[in-house]
Design brief:
Strand content: 25-35%
CATH architecture of the largest domain: 3-Layer(bba) Sandwich
Number of strands: 20
Distance between the termini: 60 Å
CATH topology of the largest domain: FAD/NAD(P)-binding domain
CATH superfamily of the largest domain: FAD/NAD(P)-binding domain
Number of domains: 2
Shape: globular
Largest sheet: 9 strands, mixed
Order of helices and strands: EHEEHEEHEHEEHEEEEHEEEEEHEEEH
Length: about 375
């Protein structure tokens, strides 16, 4: 059995946990990063070769966080000498008078993000191979692009270890005993630390049960679909074909796409929702209704792709009722910090979330206003007196 004393233990070596551990190690804190699976793995939410990075959002606070996040990604690139990002731009499309589309456009303007508003007349000149739906408008977040996700995750873990951090994979947490010093038991050892950060994605509530807390988190399995180009190179990242986000179609949730990269000649296009699934039983969830939605979209909007997915992979989302993150201290145990509910849009925030969770674990004032992310927002509000 292994054992050890640490300043901080981080549970979960996905992107958020890995950046938290890295920030702690930069501050010369003795840090242990625990992962239940052998690294690298594809069971959570941080695997896969690519993610979209963008400042285009429907809430100002996300756009503001991303301003600094871009700088932190660039800093990691310089430190490691590894390229983690390719600028392609992001085309946001949606009904011109639709609420969601207008919010995206307004947030870009509010935060002075370099942007281009496209008209129906010049859309195809700038974005060939995409049919803008009748009544839709489009705006480009020029700063957006593709993050190389697997490479980014490995890079931050390597940097953490270079700073003296300890990673132990294939160690499932079996118990958490709160106290002034927190005791964490795993399948291979017992560790103690002044603080613990739980960044375990879809397994968050399974760990929080040890602390007497359950959050309103829903775990869903997403089908990650790749669509073959009819003419290879038509939608290629090397040709600077942009990422896209289709808001408010006839469907409830967004559709997003990335230029062909991980599979040559195939574009990644997904529906931003899936079907409820236990992360330990995910392979039993075989619902493909989202793929039917995507087939219709590809047929209508991307004539250069075959309207049948060539490859289907999967990913887990952890959703909160309002789709905003949880970044907070445990309401009972102030030295247990929780980062959760990244709702399928958290990867790009990895560096800033790691910084915030690090600050919380050290008792520092966080770099950003965390009111949208507090656990207290889920508590029932007292009824006013009649």
């Amino acid at each position: 059995m292994m054992s050890g004393e640490f300043d901080c233990i981080v549970i979960g070596a996905g992107v958020q946990g890995s950046f938290t551990a890295y920030e702690l190690a930069k501050r010369k804190k003795k840090t242990l990063l625990l992962e239940q699976f052998v690294l690298p793995h594809t069971r959570g939410s941080s695997h896969g070769q690519t993610r979209i990075i963008r400042k285009a959002y429907d809430h100002d606070f996300y756009s503001r966080m991303m301003q600094e996040c871009y700088q932190l990604w660039a800093q990691l690139e310089r430190e490691a000498g590894v390229r983690l990002y390719r600028q392609t731009g992001l085309v946001v499309m949606g009904p011109e008078n639709g609420r969601s589309y207008q919010l995206y456009k307004k947030t870009l303007q509010n935060n002075k993000v370099p942007m281009v508003v496209l008209t129906r007349e010049n859309f195809n000149q700038h974005i060939p191979g995409v049919v803008l739906a009748e009544g839709d408008a489009a705006v480009v977040d020029v700063t957006a692009g593709v993050l190389y996700a697997d490479r980014a995750l490995k890079t931050v873990q390597d940097q953490f270890q270079k700073l003296g951090g300890v990673i132990r994979d294939k160690e499932k947490v079996t118990a958490i005993q709160p106290g002034p010093v927190v005791t964490v038991s795993t399948s291979a050892g017992v560790y103690r630390a002044k603080s613990v950060v739980i960044a375990a994605g879809p397994w968050t509530n399974k760990l929080l049960v040890h602390t007497g807390l359950q959050l309103p988190l829903e775990t869903v399995k997403i089908n990650v679909c790749y669509w073959k180009e009819k003419v290879p190179g038509s939608y290629d990242v090397k040709q600077r074909f942009p990422c896209f986000l289709q808001t408010e179609s006839e469907e409830v949730h967004h559709i997003y796409g990335l230029p062909s990269n991980e599979y040559p000649g195939m574009m990644k296009i997904c529906y931003h929702m899936g079907s409820k699934a236990d992360p330990d039983q995910r392979d039993q969830q075989t619902n493909t209704s989202d793929i039917d939605i995507l087939r219709r979209f590809v047929r209508r909007s991307l004539p250069g792709l075959l309207p049948e997915p060539a490859v289907v992979e999967s990913c887990m989302y952890t959703l909160t009722p309002d789709d905003h993150f949880v970044l907070d201290r445990h309401p009972t145990y102030q030295n247990i910090i929780i980062g959760a509910g990244f709702s399928g849009h958290g990867f790009k925030f990895g560096p800033i979330i790691g910084l915030i969770l690090c600050e919380l674990s050290l008792g520092e004032v966080p770099s950003f206003d965390l009111s949208p992310f507090r656990i207290g927002r889920f508590q029932p509000k007292p009824k006013s007196a009649l």
